[in-house]
Amino acid sequence: MAVWAFKLAERLLKAPLPRRWAHVRGVAERARSVSALFPYGEASILVEAAVLHDIGYAPDLALTGFHPLDGARYLRDSGHPERLCALVAHHSCSYREARLRVMTDELSEWEDEKSPLRDALWWADMTTTPDGESTNVHDRIAEIEERYGPDDLVTTFIRQATHDLVGAVERTEERLRAARLGHVTK
């Protein structure tokens, strides 16, 4: 599942951004761990989006400085499916950061599908540390705030997005409990 996506993300992230590469691998593993919630085709796109969600940080792709947009544009320009581009563009409540960056129009090229699959992608990202380890959403948000500092735009964004991010995590964990998959975050 998603071998091509792993190869692409590894090529773009491993050498220049090894910690980001560790995070991406962790997010992909988390996504794979909940893929049983979805039919095969859906599970595959979930893992692909998890692997590719942060490729916009790659130095060769970081054109606007807004990684969800840069990653989605690269995927679009490379001929990848619209849905995959949209999941990357809208991962982890990016529309809120787009507002702060005055990039809402650019992000609006893709629609946020607001689906259980989208929630699972957000869950995987928001329950994985920068080093690829499992965590819980509250510790992850606190880590982001600490890493960026109190006056950074990303800190402002994450504070504004907390309710939406926690909601996506809680909905995903409820779906896991209902499916009796027993997956629980720290």
TrEMBL record:
HD domain residues: 20-105
Pfam families, alphabetized: HD (PF01966)
Claim: Glycosyltransferase is one of the keywords in the record: no
Keyword set, alphabetical order: Hydrolase
Tree of life domain: Bacteria
Enzyme Commission code: 3.1.-.-
Enzyme category, top tier: hydrolase
Database matches in InterPro entries: HD_domain
UniProt KW Hydrolase keyword: yes
GO MF annotations in UniProt: hydrolase activity
Protein name according to UniProt: HD domain-containing protein
